[in-house]
Amino acid sequence: MRTSDEELVDGRTRHYGEFYGVVEAPRNDDRKILVVWGNCQAEALRIVLSSSPDLPFRTVRVPPVHELESADMARVEDLTSSAAIIVSQPVRTGYRGFPIGTSDLADLAPSASVIVWPVIRYGGLFPFQVIARHPAQPSAVPAAVPYHDLRTALAVVAGRDRFDEWDVDIAAERIREAAQWSVDQLAVRERRHCDVRISDTLLDLGADAAHTINHPGNRVLLALGGRILDSLGASAPVPPSRDLLGNIRAPLEDG
To answer: Is-contact 13 22, C-beta < 8 A?
Structure first.
């Protein structure tokens, strides 16, 4: 029996079906296109924005920038050139050797409005958590595990092999200082690069702020989405029924 063309399409291509041209655009939806651009946070934000009941634009699911390859560039150009709104994180020009930076997209779509939103990174809940990448591949997914704990790294350097010797006793005030520092650093990046901010919400959200240092919780995404939607003249987003970036979670310690 001959395998159909649909069966030959892999799951990832089908997931981004409209972007890759294996799924047709909705025929009964004549709204102009809004593209949400960035890392893994971008798809979560797209879901939030598209939940607005009167959003005057339709969104298209696109791969995160760190997954794009040279074969995708023609599709990036086609999609971007047809966009009316580009909602992008600050992505540097020529990122990974491709024309997929924020300014690159603005050049491809000179008539589109561009709204820049922050790469959300918050260490207030996880002051020991880091992402360790090789200097030669700063955009690559880290080997073995996506995150490392500085306490573990220090224990290895010191030659410790007992779990009860790995922890570091830090006063609560120092943890609060670290959280404020993390917010301040994000605020600096927002002022430098962004049209909308989110840093002012993080401290008040407590444990709901993030699942990991770079996976914000739904309440953060809803607050950010609400601000972007307000600038577009659209109603507030509808809270999703699942944690959009909750597939990876770091444990929280009581304190």
So the answer is: yes
- For residue 71, what are its two tokens? 């074969």
8-59 pLDDT per residue, tens: 678 999 999 999 999 998 888 999 999 999 999 999 999 999 999 999 999 9
Set out the domains of the chain in order of their start, with CATH numbers: 31-122+196-231 (3.40.50.12080), 129-169 (no CATH)
Name the 3-class secondary structure at 216: strand
Strand, coil or helix: 42: helix
Q: Distance (Å, rounded) from C-alpha 49 to C-alpha 57?
A: 10
Q: What is the DSSP string of 81-134?
A: HTEEEEEE----TTGGGSS-SHHHHHHH-TTSEEEE-------SS-TTEE----
Nearest alpha carbon to residue 147 among 248, 221, 68: 248
Which residue is listed with tokens 């892999």? Answer: 10
CA–CA distance, 128 with 138 (Å, rounded to integer): 20
* Angle at CA of residue 65, ends 14 and 137, nearest 5°: 120
Q: Which residues lie below 8 Å from residue 49, measured CB to CB, with a gap of 6+? A: 34, 36, 55, 59, 87, 225, 228, 229, 237
